Amino acid sequence: MSKEFVVIGLGRFGGSIVRELNALDMDVMAIDADEARVNEFSDIATHAVIADTTDEAVMKSLGIRNFDHVIVAIGENIQASTLTTLILKELGVKKVTAKAQNDYHAKILNKIGADTVVHPERDMGRRIAHNVASASVLDYLELSDEYSIVEIKAGERLAGSSILELDVRANFGINIIAVKRGKDIIVAPDPNENIEYNDILIVIGHDNDLNRFEKKLV
Ligand code: ADP
Predict the structure, then answer these.
(1) Residue 142, beta-bridge partner list
(2) What's the rounded Cα separation, in Å, for the pair 208 and 175?
(3) 118, 152, 183: which is the final residue of a domain?
(4) Could you tell me which Pfam families the record lists for this protein (predicted)?
(5) What residue ranges line ligand 1, CB within 6 angstroms?
(6) Which among 92, 217, 107 is positioned nearest to 158, based on CA atoms?
(7) Model's pTM, two decimal places?
(8) What is the ipTM of this complex?
(9) pLDDT digits (tens, 9 = 90+) for 56-98
(10) Tell me, what CATH number does 71's domain have?
């Protein structure tokens, strides 16, 4: 059985989640207080509903607690976002993901029980900063405040050595989890795998160690 999702708030962020879930063949109920927004999604979502989600009675009548996962994608209106999240948790929805507009908003969402709080703008900003700060870092995924996964382009200093010779685990405390070579991807590469010029290494580790590795070897 496919999972059933609810997306509340059909702006750019929520709208793109609905489109993507639909492309993945998932059932999704799309809710917005704005009729025109809802109409836009009537053919894309499994159900598209006009409702004010800060109204508890309306939420109950939609049977919202029976869904697997509710995503609160209300952006600007922080009051509506927090109240909606609160009602969802009070009604017993197991999994609520909420979009935070800023750090204060995130703090409140965490406090009222949102299971996951996402900061798409902040995260994208950070990814882009890492990307532009270093020509060799192609992408960056923050796992926690201290740990990340980065995609690093292998330059001349790395090319020709095997993973064993580099011994990044001992020397830097980081792990190469995959190597992208052209269209191929080598997952969990063999330690004897030779790194080639322009390979893209997917590396996991502490931010300080990743930085050290990048400065020394890339
Ligand atoms: P984005 O930044 O992703 O474009 P917006 O803040 O522009 O997000 O859009 C959020 C959407 O949430 C809007 O379409 C708005 O109508 C909807 N929304 C705001 N408050 C409520 C509410 N109380 N109930 C339902 N939908 C709401």
Answers:
(1) 148
(2) 13
(3) 118
(4) TrkA_C (PF02080), TrkA_N (PF02254)
(5) 8-14, 31-34, 37, 52-54, 73-77, 80
(6) 217
(7) 0.78
(8) 0.94
(9) 999 999 999 999 999 999 989 999 999 999 999 999 999 999 9
(10) 3.40.50.720
